[in-house]
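fyi for ur records
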Amino acid sequence: MTLRRLAGAALLVGGLLAVSSTSAHAVTLEAVLRASARHHPELIAARKKVQARLGKLLASRGAFDPKLALDAGAAPVGPYGAWLAGVGVAQQTRRGGVAWKGGYRVGADHPVYTGKQVTSDAGEVYVQVGVPLWRGRAIDPARASLRRAELQAEAEAERLRAKALALLEKAGLAWIKWRVAAAKQQVEAELYALAERRARQLNVRAQRGLVAELVAVDNARLLASRRERLLAARQASVAAALKLSLYFRDAAGLPSTPTATADGVGPPPELEAPTELAPEASAQEIAAATEARPEPRVAKLAVAAAGIDIALADNDRAPQLDLLLDASYGLGESQPYGAAELAKSGPKAAARLSLAWPWPQRKARGSAAAARADADAARAMGQLWRERIAVELRTAHTALAAARERMREARRAAEAAHALEQAEWRRFDLGQVDLVVVNLREVATADAAAKAATAWGDLQAARLRLMAANGRLLAWLGVEAPAQRAAMPKK
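which gave:
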């Protein structure tokens, strides 16, 4: 393949920089993004943080686990020889802050002033219920901790999506830079190969006296210059491949350095932006992007978490008014103590109210002030993210429009350089120009090809940034991170 063919517009855009997602050996953009999503350490660490939050959520639910209690005691030394034994279950519920305890107990030989510990001779079954009527009815520390843990787990999943979106954008840009560097290396390789072939021909002709020896020497100088350009392009390609290896990983999660090939240079068809795209982002597109992007959701969840703290602090400022209910049923015969029956058999019930008023409420007032400040800070961050997303979308639209225009101009420049080079070759064949002019045209054609490759890369980078800005990049890959919700512990 000659440099003139390489620099042709059809080859530049339709061959060297063409879409090739069918090659089995191609390092495609999709392969790089999927490898990053699955194996990049930053996303692995972020997924572990989600798992840690899910573990804390499960621990918060443990506050409502029923608890089994065994109790036994005796006083063998002393005038009474009292003894007591019992088994029960206690649980704090999520419904209105109600707590209950029930079970079986048996006790005897207690002094009269501890008559509550004396049961009928076969023991008694009992149930006790505590009902908060004011403080603790709508919310309490256990329910607040659970709700906060749920919000934090959801926020961590959204932060995972945000990290994935940012990382995949970096991975895509690294892939684009690698493909551009590989294309430029191929341009320089063709330019050098052309000079190398001509050097061999000129040396033979110089030895036969058909051309001046100075012409062969000048071509040798040109060959050294082109080799220098090739070495620089090769180094740039290697550096881009090494950077890409941080994102392109094998099944073991280790960096995999790709080699420069002509396969898979372009993006998969799905990444192509619509041919006709509005120069400005519409209000509907900005609203959809704000809804799709994870960062505003993180801020919204932070506001909700602060709201839980505000509700809990307001709850702590309220009076503690509790209704306590106690019911039991004595089994067997009553146990007398002197002339009195301390523990009658059959049903018994009791109820009482307790009231406590916190004062001067500095802890609750301070907690409420801190939580409101946290909520205001989260709202401010949410506003900033909404504004930032709008700016990113508008910037992506203008960048894409400019990149398309630059691509068209680079294509025209490459076509013009190619046509001029062909014209100079025809003039050279007719003896109208010397080899120096032809060499200059070859270099100009190669430079135009390199600029076309850069313009192609800018166009693909603009498309990728647009997909990142509107949040479609994760959905396009089908690797939306918070599939973690399905793995949340059951209530």
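The longest helix spans residues 362-429. thats all i got for now
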